[in-house]
């Protein structure tokens, strides 16, 4: 039995697989977010307790010995821990928007672009650079008390392995301090952000084959455990996206587009990031938009519609949603891909007294699709496209998405991030698994030619509306 652990933003999951990649059991536990006035924080003890709980539950359901465990989780944010991996303060989530003034300042004075040209990372308010700089200005005592500023899965890994020294992997370290070409922290970037005196808080980047051998609560003692990659590259592995040009779209809380590449290009508009992988010379060009299914969740809550009703409502109104349009930029910290606009907000247009909840829901799904098309184009998609995430549970939305994107979708269902975490762990330990069998798509959704042509025109109109919204956001 192989176990993958995925420490998500709102849900922690553990999944058990057999040697052929068949999903045997899944256990999940929700974790809370503390949202207030632009601040988004998480209780580390609650997160860690959820990890232990799902591990205990999944190993109890499938009593075979655990051969290997892989760990993944949400990226970015700042998780301040002491030498034993215990929290110094609540974690600052990747969704936190308190550092937007710093990002605005860096956008204006050229620091933002300089960092991108050096590391391929387009900073946003919830990534470690701005958050550490904000803490240094507003909560310096928290940084003084910390032994390390790590990422979510690093905190869990340190605790599961008995409080050994904090480490991270190249994928999590990619934003914003890692030079993707040298795979080392760029101290010049640390200095640019005014954090040289906090350099010691950056966790060492572990060798890709570094692992833990003795685990604590939740797994039998002695279980082999690997830390990383974080959830975006883990999903790429779990969906079989490794060949240059092939892409993955994660339709989850965050709408993330990733394309595999062997040629990092630090030119062009500064946006997204290059995620380093365990294989030197291979990267993922990532365009992780701030809001995916969260936008639809907000619309459903506002209209009083339940998730099981979405498919029927998508069929109840035609493409174009009777003229209703949605720019789906609902995040309080604005947008980070395929452009950075910290003050951008969602916009609804074309609504009148005759508009229905079905119109609003379809327009939201279409808007998310247009945003995905924008991200995939910016990331350089030229090959096949896999899709995973909670949005894949809606067949009607997948058909709509194939039409909006104008290309077939390889839909990969199940716990894709946990699956990728196991595949990464197996590679680090030199254990041969049949990756093709593990990443076989559930189905392929083909686009309708006529609707795809309609949505190509709709995409051009979306880009025009977006340009106007970006101008308004800067006023």
From TrEMBL:
| Superkingdom, natural source | Bacteria
Report if keyword Transferase is assigned: yes
The Carbohydrate kinase FGGY C-terminal domain extends over 249-426
Looking at the keywords, is Kinase present?
A: yes
EC numbers on record: 2.7.1.17, 2.7.1.27
The residue ranges of the Carbohydrate kinase FGGY N-terminal domain are 1-206
Protein name per UniProt: Carbohydrate kinase
């Amino acid at each position: 039995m192989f176990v993958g652990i995925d420490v998500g933003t709102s849900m922690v999951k553990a999944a058990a697989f057999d040697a052929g990649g068949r999903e045997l059991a899944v256990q999940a536990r929700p974790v809370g977010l503390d949202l207030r006035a632009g601040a988004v924080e998480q209780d580390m003890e609650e997160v860690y307790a959820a990890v232990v709980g799902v591990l205990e539950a999944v190993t109890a359901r499938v009593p075979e010995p655990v051969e290997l465990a892989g760990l993944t989780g949400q990226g970015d944010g700042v998780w301040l821990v002491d030498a034993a991996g215990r929290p110094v303060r609540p974690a600052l989530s990747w969704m936190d928007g308190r550092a937007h003034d710093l990002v605005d300042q860096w956008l204006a004075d050229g620091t933002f672009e300089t960092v991108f040209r050096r590391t391929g990372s387009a900073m946003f308010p919830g990534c470690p650079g701005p958050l550490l700089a904000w803490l240094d200005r507003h909560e310096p005592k928290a940084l003084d008390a910390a032994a390390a500023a790590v990422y979510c899965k690093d905190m869990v890994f340190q605790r599961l392995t008995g409080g050994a020294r904090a480490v991270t992997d190249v994928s999590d370290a990619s934003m914003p301090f890692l030079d993707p070409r040298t795979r080392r922290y760029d101290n010049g970037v640390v200095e640019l952000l005014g954090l040289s005196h906090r350099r010691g808080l950056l966790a060492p980047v572990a060798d890709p084959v570094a692992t833990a051998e003795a685990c604590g609560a939740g797994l039998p003692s002695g279980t082999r455990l690997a830390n990383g990659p974080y959830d975006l590259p883990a999903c790429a592995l779990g969906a079989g996206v490794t060949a240059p040009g092939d892409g993955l779209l994660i339709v989850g809380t965050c709408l993330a587009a990733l394309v595999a590449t062997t040629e990092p290009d630090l030119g062009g508009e500064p946006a997204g990031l290059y995620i380093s992988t365990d294989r030197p010379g291979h990267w993922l060009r990532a365009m992780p938009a701030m809001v995916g299914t969260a936008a639809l969740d907000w619309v459903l809550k506002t209209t009083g519609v339940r998730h099981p009703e979405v498919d029927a409502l998508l069929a109840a109104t035609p493409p174009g949603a009777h003229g209703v349009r949605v720019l789906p930029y609902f995040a309080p910290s604005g947008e980070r891909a395929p452009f950075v606009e910290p003050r951008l907000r969602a916009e609804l247009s074309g609504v009148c007294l005759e508009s229905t909840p079905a119109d609003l829901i379809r327009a939201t799904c279409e808007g998310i699709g247009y945003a995905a098309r924008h991200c995939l184009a910016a990331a350089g998609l030229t090959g096949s496209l896999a899709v995973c995430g909670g949005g894949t549970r809606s067949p009607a939305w997948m058909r709509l998405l194939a039409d909006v994107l104008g290309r077939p979708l390889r839909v990969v269902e199940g716990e894709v991030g946990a699956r990728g975490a196991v595949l990464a762990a197996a590679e680090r330990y030199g254990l041969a698994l049949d990756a093709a069998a593990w990443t076989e798509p559930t189905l392929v959704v083909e686009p309708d030619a006529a609707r795809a042509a309609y949505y190509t025109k709709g995409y051009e109109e979306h880009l025009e509306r977006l340009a106007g919204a970006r101008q308004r956001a800067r006023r």
